[in-house]
Amino acid sequence: MYGVRAARVGFSISLLLAVVASWAMTHEEMLERLESARTPDQVRAALDQARTSLETDDEFWEQFDRVEPNDSNPEQLDRLKAMLRTRIVAERVAPATTGDPAQVAREIKRNPVYYDPGVARSSNWISRAFQRLGEWLERIRMPERKINAPEIPSAPGWGNVLIPIVWFVLGAGVLAFLIWAARTFGWKIAKRKKKIAGLLEEDEPERTADEWLVRAGELESEGRHREAVRCLYLACLVRIDEANVARFVRSETNWEHLARIDVSPRKPSTLDFRTPTQRFDLIWYGFLTQGAPDVEDFRNIYRSLCEILSLQKSA
Length: 315
What we know:
Layout: H1 2-21, H2 27-36, H3 40-53, H4 58-67, H5 76-93, H6 101-110, H7 125-146, H8 158-189, H9 209-221, H10 225-242, H11 254-262, H12 274-285, H13 292-314
């Protein structure tokens, strides 16, 4: 008889954990699921759960549908993670920043979450589930303290034994998970590096600066402003290469190019390419675009860059 009751208690605990874990998912929890996924099946399971429980807006889902990973293009997973990180950071810094894109970029770059993919985060969905379960158990016990009526005899010991059993099972589950996580991921944390694809895809042709400008105009006419901004940014890098300031390398990221530009002895003293790089990072990797105004701003950046490089060449 006691064995049957113990089995029922175990089943109730499992059901409670499943209910608590199935509550609405946040952007941070979605990122944690993708970071911990090690197989395509685990990635697909995380994406399926996001579609049913992720709390976000319609604009996010439009971008989500564009970059959702599939078996034929796994590089899109890195783009989805970058989009989630930028969305998380943008939500955190939005109340404290102005509408100035450069100021927003500086706030996001200073935020440690931008660089941390979520490995060292102190809280996760399991700890929150335990906290919610504890609050639920506490609410069950509270009415017993407020009722002044005479106590009704009940089965001896069960009222005081159930809650310790629940916490014991939960504690054992947490301990088992920590041991598994330490053995599986502990030795990889120190060597882990964030993988970001280069500015050009492997099958994408290289173009001259003028060709990038033409391509930017075509994309803008189609309403693809984010892609047009990327073409204008690439045109800037090609012009910098032509001026022998820093070589354009298709496999490098925007930040790797900026690092070589800043240390180049041929860099003009009036050239500030950090602010355009930060804005490009938000627009391309973070999907935070204002549309046509961003395209026009980057055209002005390209014109200003050409003037600076031309002045240096004539000098």
